[in-house]
Amino acid sequence: MIRYALACEHDHEFEGWFGASADFDDQQARGLIECPVCASKAVRKAIMAPAVAGTKRRSQDQSPAQNQAMMMEAMGRIRQHVEDNFDDVGDAFASEARAIHEGRSEDRGIYGQATSTEVKKLVEDGVPVAPMPPEAPRKSKLN
Q1: Which helix (H) or strand (E) holds 84?
Q2: Coil, strand or helix at 43
């Protein structure tokens, strides 16, 4: 796996993981990469410091597959925390997030669904939003 620092045309910075160096170019050409903050598809690689290995080996060194599994597990824990502690407002997410931001609704954590257009408008208006980690694949769907 290769990690790239990415930025959209609005200078939102995020990272993307790709199986090979050519995958970013291929996915970008097909319009599959978008900013998780504003949904812009005008995404570029940002400057990032190279990962340089130190001289000491750590006993916890793991394979890329193990690192990926750990990352998926962590994202699953985050998603579970949100589902357990935040209010699911479904497709009313954009209007409820705006109401909370403007003080018209109780200040609380929420999650739900919004279109990329709704998310872009929320971000433009300064409403703090972030994408939910994806659901973990069902074990029956894994190889």
Answers
A1: helix 64-85
A2: strand
In this predicted model, what pLDDT tens digit does every residue of 47-87 receive, in sequence order? 766 666 655 555 467 788 888 888 888 888 888 999 999 99
Give me Rg for the CA atoms of the chain: 18
Q: What are phi and psi of 16, to 5 degrees?
A: -135, 145
Instruction: Reduce the DSSP state of residue 31 to 3 states and report it.
Output: coil
* Per-residue pLDDT tens digits for 107-137: 999 999 999 999 999 999 999 999 988 877 6
Amino acid identity of 38?
C
Largest CA distance in the chain: 56
Tell me the pTM: 0.52
- Name the amino acid, one letter, at 121: K
Question: Which residues lie below 8 Å from residue 6, measured CB to CB, with a gap of 6+?
Answer: 13, 14, 15, 16, 33, 43, 44, 45, 46
Residue with tokens 């000491």: 56
Distance CA 79, CA 5 (A): 23
DSSP state of 37: T
